Every structure is written in C-alpha cells, then in structure tokens.
Amino acid sequence: MIRVADALDGINRGLAHVIRWLALLMVLVQFAIVVGRYVFGVNSIAAQESVLYMHSALFMLAAGYTLLVDKHVRVDVFFAGLSPAGQRRVDVFGHLFLLMPSMTALLYWSWPSVRNSWSILEGPLAVGGIEAVFLLKSLIPAFCVLVMLQSLSLLIRLLFESDRR
After folding, report:
1. Phi first, then psi: what are they for 161, rounded to 5°?
2. What's the distance, Cα to Cα, between the start and end of the chain in Å?
3. Is the Cβ–Cβ distance between 15 and 67 less than 8 Å?
4. Tens digit of each residue's pLDDT (9 = 90 or more) over 94-153
5. Which residues contact 66 (CB under 8 A, 6 or more apart)?
6. Is the CB of residue 137 less than 8 Å from the CB of residue 89?
7. How far apart are CA 165 and CA 143, in angstroms?
8. Which of 87, 118, 119, 124 has the highest local Cβ count within 10 Å?
C-alpha cells in the first residue's frame, strides 16, 4: 500500500515541479504589463487575463502538493497538544469526513458548469481577452481530483505506517 501512496505523491510532486515555474512567469508577465502600460502606453487585456490564468493554475494545481508537504492551513485548535496517536485520529477523521466529502461535493456541483463551458468552448472574460474560460473552469475538477488523490495517499500512510510513528 505504501507503494500506492508513493505513486500518488509522485503525481503531485511531478506536477509541482512543472507548475512552480508559473510563479516566475506570472511575475515576468505582470512586470511586462506594467512596463508596457506606464512606459510605452500599451495595454493588453489578454496579457492581463494571462496573469489571472497563471495565478489560478498555480494555486489550484499546487493544492495537492501543499497538502503533501503539510503546508496547508490547520484549524485544529487542540491538535498540537495531542499525542501522535491523537493527531493521527484527527487527521484520519479530517480526511474521511471533512476533506474527501467536501472535494466530492465541489466536484459534483461544479461539473455541470465545467461540462457546459466545454460544450460551447466558453470565450473570454472580457472583450479582447483569452478565449479559453473553459480551461480556467477545468481547474476546479483538477483541483478536486489532485487534493483527493493526495488525501488518499495521506490516509494510506496514516493507516499503514502508524506503527512507525
């Protein structure tokens, strides 16, 4: 089972190694937009939207990796004071009864919008923008699947590596 968890981790690690470059690209494009606007008087709606697309992709596709490296936001008030076994129980409960159901619900309720967007190849957010809102909306199910895969990996580790902790 640990091999399965390692393979699931590999999906988010591999994706993170690719999309981390979006942060640099996003900064460079934003810098070019500012220079273009204030130095040369040139403006591009598509360039501005590209920053939105990169920002969205960066955060939505990196969420699973963030969960993997334990850099997500914890709201557990008593978690730090619990024993390792207690922390494991809280994590298992959180994955099974909070994270997985919420990702499943988000995936279920967003899918019709994503499907409809693809069926009409939904156009730009603004006149002159990027004609690919359907790609932007596709980040929602991708986010759900990546987080659910990482949650499954962490659950496997919590349940099968508990003797090692």
Report:
1. -105, 10
2. 17
3. no
4. 999 999 999 999 999 999 999 999 999 999 988 999 999 999 999 999 999 999 999 999
5. 72
6. no
7. 29
8. 87
- What totals of helices (H) and strands (E) does the chain contain, helices first? 5, 0
Nearest alpha carbon to residue 132 among 15, 60, 50: 50
Pairwise CA distance, residues 69 & 61, whole Å: 14
Closest CA to 143 of 77, 64, 89, 82: 64
SS3 13: helix
Tokens for 127, please give them.
């006149």
CA distances from 91 to 9, 121, 155 (A): 17, 40, 8
d(CA 66, CA 14): 13
